[in-house]
């Protein structure tokens, strides 16, 4: 489908999807960085903050499950033109609810809309990224996810600056929404009009046929095996984001500042390996990369749990971050190996990942209350081992141009 695109148009397409990944990371972190101000402005407690986050999370999960239907009906480009507007609108509504209107229900409604559209956007940009990979015949998915990570760093940094300067939530997030909308419109101009990612629907299927296609992917054993890869690594990544600082403070008896440094080390390690991961996959293949990194993640987490001192703990954290870096993006890439089923497969894989991100933190929190945070992290070690064992499922299917190692990609280096 992409053979008619010139090299220049392919590069513009790739750059547009890089930009959208960066934008999504920035928008997500911009909101998260202002949570203390949200809590203060609305006069709510931690439980009510949790309800806001739950509204966004459940909206995201619904959006992930709707994405494949959107792509099958309208194509990824047209779908993104709607969902990216929805993300900006939801962010603006939430910001106005927090600051200008001081309304908890409006803030919750805005976050639910933002989450719904964000979930669908996430699937569609991953499907587009997989199509770009196939067009370039090189592993690029880790680099796309590195741009998301860079966006979160930028969004968090801007959020710190806005909070320090005491800029209101409405102004900060309102401007972020406006800039995001402009960037989205410009970027989508460079995405091929014939959604390279849609489910090849020359003959517009009926609603029943689209539903059947969406459900069929759940009868494919490969979906669950790829889901096991993503589940293990989503827990490895999510547990660090949510519990690493607490594990450093409560488990290793360090200061809160040291906990923040530990999370930074993890994030930097993960981002660096996402930036350099593509050439590694093209050299040794998707399966061996996942096996090696699952060993690194598991070993790093064990070193962190058992560390007798802080330097050893930091070595473990760096290994943990590096090992967890590619599981989610390579799982997405594997799910999209068959372009004709890319939307439904990526949607299913992303659903499993989102469930892990949503359900993981509270489950781990409840368990850690019973046995302590460091003991709880052994559960993550077991899930990482499961991910490594399941990595064979990521073997590229016949016809895929990426992920098989140097015998496929050698001509492109």
Which structural category fits the helices and strands? Answer: mainly alpha
Summed over residues and divided by their number, the pLDDT gives a mean of 86
Strand content: under 5%
Summarize the biggest pleated sheet.
none
Could you state the oligomeric state of the chains shown?
A: single chain
Q: Rough shape?
A: globular
Number of strands: 0
Topology pattern, helix = H, strand = E: HHHHHHHHHHHHHHHH
- What is the helix fraction of residues, given as a range? over 70%
Rg calc: 21 Å
Q: Which parts are unreliable, with pLDDT below 50 for 5 consecutive residues or more? A: 195-203, 407-413
Ends distance: 24 Å
Q: Please give the count of helices.
A: 16
Q: Secondary-structure map with pairings?
A:
Elements: H1 7-33, H2 35-42, H3 46-74, H4 76-98, H5 104-136, H6 141-164, H7 169-188, H8 207-216, H9 221-251, H10 256-284, H11 286-306, H12 310-324, H13 327-335, H14 342-371, H15 373-390, H16 406-409
Helix pairs in contact: 1-5, 1-6, 1-7, 3-4, 3-5, 3-14, 4-5, 4-7, 5-14, 6-10, 6-13, 9-10, 9-13, 9-14, 9-15, 10-11, 10-12, 11-12, 11-15, 13-14, 14-15
């Amino acid at each position: 489908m992409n053979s008619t695109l010139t090299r220049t148009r392919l590069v513009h397409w790739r750059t547009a999807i890089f930009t959208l990944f960066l934008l999504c990371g920035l928008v997500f972190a911009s909101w998260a960085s202002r949570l203390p101000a949200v809590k203060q402005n609305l006069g709510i407690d931690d439980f009510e903050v949790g309800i806001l986050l739950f509204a966004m999370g459940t909206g995201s999960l619904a959006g992930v499950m709707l994405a494949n239907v959107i792509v099958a009906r309208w194509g990824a480009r047209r779908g993104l033109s709607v969902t990216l507007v929805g993300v900006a609108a939801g962010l603006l509504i939430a910001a106005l609810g927090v600051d200008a209107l001081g309304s908890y229900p409006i803030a919750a409604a805005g976050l639910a809309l933002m989450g719904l559209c964000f979930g669908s956007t996430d699937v569609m940009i991953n499907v587009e990224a997989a199509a770009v990979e196939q067009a370039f015949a090189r592993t690029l998915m880790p680099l796309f996810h590195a741009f998301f990570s860079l966006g979160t760093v930028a969004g968090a940094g801007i959020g710190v600056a806005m909070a320090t300067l005491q800029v209101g939530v409405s102004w900060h997030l309102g401007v972020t929404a406006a800039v995001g909308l402009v960037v989205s419109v410009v970027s989508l101009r460079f995405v091929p009009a014939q959604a390279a990612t849609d489910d090849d629907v020359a003959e517009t299927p009926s609603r029943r046929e689209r539903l059947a296609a969406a459900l069929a992917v759940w009868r494919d054993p490969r979906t669950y095996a790829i889901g096991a890869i993503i589940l293990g690594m989503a827990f490895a990544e999510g547990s660090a984001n949510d519990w690493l600082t607490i594990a450093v403070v409560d488990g290793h008896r360090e200061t809160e500042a040291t906990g923040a440094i530990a999370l930074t080390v993890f994030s930097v390690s993960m981002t660096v390996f996402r930036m350099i991961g593509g050439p590694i996959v093209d050299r040794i293949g998707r399966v061996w990369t996942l096996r090696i990194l699952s060993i690194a993640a598991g070993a790093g987490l064990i070193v962190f749990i058992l560390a007798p001192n802080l330097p050893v703990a930091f070595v473990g954290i760096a290994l943990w971050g590096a090992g967890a870096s590619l599981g989610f993006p390579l799982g997405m890439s594997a799910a999209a190996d068959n372009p004709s089923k890319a939307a439904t497969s990526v949607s299913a894989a992303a659903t499993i990942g989102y469930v892990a991100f949503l359900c993981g933190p509270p489950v781990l929190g409840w368990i850690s209350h019973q046995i302590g945070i460091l003991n709880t992290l052994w559960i993550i070690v077991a899930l990482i081992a499961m991910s490594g064992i399941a990595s064979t499922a990521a073997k590229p299917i016949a016809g895929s141009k990426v992920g098989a190692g140097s015998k496929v990609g050698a001509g492109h280096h």
